[in-house]
Write the structure tokens for this entry.
Amino acid sequence: MTRETRRRRFIRYTALATTAGLAGCSGGSDSDDDGGATTSDTPEQTETETAAPETEEVDLTESGDESTPIANPERAVEDWLSGTPNFDGHIESETGTTTVDVGARTPNNDYFAYSPPALEVTVGTEVQWQWTGQGGAHSVTERNGAFDSGSPRSSSGKTLTHEFEETGVYLYRCRNHGGAVGMRGAVIVRERDTLSGYPAVDDWLEDYEYDGRLADRRGEASLEVTVGAEGNGGNFAYRPIAPLVSQGTDITFRWTGRGGGHDVTWENVDLPDSDTTSSYDNTFSVTLDESGVYLYRCDNHRTTGGRGAIVVA
């Protein structure tokens, strides 16, 4: 393959800074119903409950004011899951629809667990619990009634879906195994802008392969962004998709030559854009001198992906 001559354009400019602070987290849910949770069974699901070994019907009523704000959500989760065999202290951050297995295998070689046991999501996230059919009859029962799958079931294919509309800490367990056996789970729900701290970035990248966190590259003199990286169903992504850099960082966009013609078109600032090209190793460079949020897209792939953001702090 003949490599085309590299093009490097250096552009210095000033952009209007836009910043946002981290939002706080409020307390647990005070819902008295299922909060819109839905359950479904496979056609093979029967109404007969299967008794699990060593079951223990537990009292799910918790003392105290359920609307009291929780100052340290992570500590609340750690305390709640202190006896959960597959919880190692890690709280998994998720965006978009998230799946949790009910009846997951534990380090004890039994199936009395949820996997993952602890999640951190943002408002509007939908979580679906899916029964594996292992470990006997299980339920998903939030301690304050925010969501509840009902009587414990053992058949695989059963699901419970709940959309989290309020911030807070949601602690749940299995009616049969949520005591000494430790089958418990937790969900921390934060405002949508709290994972990255920049709501403009979160909104811009909401429908793309973005985990809600910025790639911290502060202190580096230069940063390379891949154009035509694998993602969004093909080679339609920028990587890293949302870096956090220092003022004065040189940003070089470098083309992979895959996925057809790509470009860098600025969305929220009046700056020169790159040309559309599919040339391997083509480059386009800018130097970001001022703090702010810089949003860009691939104008040639509006429907298949191709969005990115750069935060300068």
